[in-house]
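Re-running the complex after MR caught last week's input typo. The corrected sequence lines follow. Everything else is unchanged.
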Amino acid sequence: MKSFIKHSLKFALLALVLLAATTVYAQDAARLRFENLNKLEAKAQDVVEVNIDGKLLDLAKRVLAKNNDADAKKVGQAIAGLKGIYVRVFTFEKENEYDTSDVDEIRAQLSSPGWERLANVRSKKNNQKVDVFTMFSGDVMSGVAVVVSDTKSIAVINVIGPIDIDLLAELSGKMNIPKIDIENGDEKPKN
Amino acid sequence: MKKEDYLWDKTGSDPEIERLENALAVFRYKETAPPELPAKVLPFTKKENTRSFFRFAYAAACVAFVAIALGVWFQISNKKPVVAEIRTEFAAPVIENKIADVVPVKDTEQSNVAAPKQFINRKAVKIQKAVYKNNLAAREIKVKSATVALSKEEKYAYDQLMLALSITSSKLKLVSDKIEGNTVNNDGR
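Corrected-run output:
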């Protein structure tokens, strides 16, 4: 009887470790590498770099929870399971000032197994390319990647953890999530 | 010539007049007992003098109007024309106050307090009126705009998250709009 309990405990512990490892792997797999974009900083006119995860993210969530506003609640709901957000936005003064292979390298990462293309928009105007990828581990979303590029700008967004995409898109321009048109370099906060 | 003394003072005789007198004797006044009043006498109600009533009502209305006007005047004149605060509360939509819930007031906002005096004088009356009209609304907004004390780390974290979310939501909206636009174009063909 004792050996049965011992074996059961060992099995449960092993299952927990495996589950944790799978989760960590899924999170790591959803994380994009931005190193190749670093060289663009020197060329770009404007650079936006945001890395928010771990304690910083928890702190921000706590601040959001203090706000009793309905939109704030929605944002809080949309990012409840969020593990991190990494953003890189490069805006260039002139057209075709960057090498498209730099963005293609990011897109290549998204062709690895696990990522599924959710949206793919191509526009001849400004040679705009928009890609949205998602990664799922089981039924749970483990990552989102958005890559937007045109002749004068590149924007790469990597979200780790589940996030309500529709709700977040709906909240654009609300709360203090201003509508930012990075491509045109215009910031349009809500009046 | 015929004398008419009989007609005036009944002296002498005048057969014709006498005949007429006799003929009309049935209608001659006879003193009898006075007629009895009806048993039920209707009470006499004095009509109210409506004209004086309206005069009184008019005077009362005038007094009330003057009292209200004075009250309003004193209330307005007692308000402090703090232009910067009022501008923040009324010019900014509620959404701005929501930001104020979590983000402390910046130095740039404080600089608004030191607005030019000339500007205050010109705009003071309009602003005071707005304050009076929107007194309740202002109170509500003031309650909403009560700032939450945040540490530097909390503010930084919140700003970073909001920046990341703003860019993310903006891009997702862009994709959504593009897809919807394409769908509409395809349907329209």
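None of the earlier attempt is carried over here. The beta strands of chain A are 46-53, 84-91, 115-123, 128-137, 140-149, 153-160, 179-181, 186-188. Chain A touches chain B through 50 residues (CB under 8 Å).
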